[in-house]
Design goal:
Strand content: 5-15%
Strand order of the largest sheet: 1-5-4-2-3
CATH architecture of the largest domain: 3-Layer(aba) Sandwich
Largest sheet: 5 strands, parallel
Shape: globular
CATH superfamily of the largest domain: Rhodanese-like domain
Structural class: alpha/beta
Number of strands: 5
Helix content: 25-40%
Radius of gyration: 17 Å
CATH class of the largest domain: Alpha Beta
CATH topology of the largest domain: Oxidized Rhodanese, domain 1
Length: 138
């Protein structure tokens, strides 16, 4: 019986290692989904790489305007979370929309809203602005 548990533990461990490797190595977008959510969670490094590669992104900062004015990622637009349900149609459907927020729940709710409204490419910046170490615009 112990041999079965050890074997199962090894198999599960290898599967988790493979998943972690795919995520950390940049894997396909579908490999970077976390928490069972149908949107990506991008690390700050992944987002910086996408920006540097000039990938067609729309960066949406969900923070309140006063926080946005204190410093934001260059090229972002500010749509406070309270306005996303009325202003989401301003966002193009043919590019990946990346939400940036200090509260993961707000970014997740915004992502869910877009997916419910026929957007296909949605992501969030994992950790929000606290994790961003790239350029800041004021």
């Amino acid at each position: 019986m112990r041999k079965v548990y050890v074997t199962a533990s090894v198999i599960i461990g290898l599967a988790l290692f493979g998943f972690a490797f795919a995520v950390l190595s940049g894997g396909k977008p579908a490999d970077r989904y976390t928490d069972g959510q149908p949107w990506e969670r991008l690390t700050a490094d992944q987002l910086q790489q996408a920006i540097n590669a000039r990938e067609p992104l729309v960066l949406v900062d969900l923070r309140q305007p006063e926080h946005y004015r204190e410093g934001h990622i260059p090229g972002t637009i500010n749509i406070p979370f309270k306005d996303i349900q009325t202003r989401y149609s301003q966002l193009p459907k043919d590019r990946m929309v990346v939400f940036i927020a200090d509260d993961a729940a707000l970014a997740d709710a915004s992502s869910q809203w877009l997916l419910q409204n026929d957007y296909k490419q949605v992501a969030v910046l994992a950790g929000g602005m606290a994790q961003w170490h790239g350029g800041i615009e004021k």
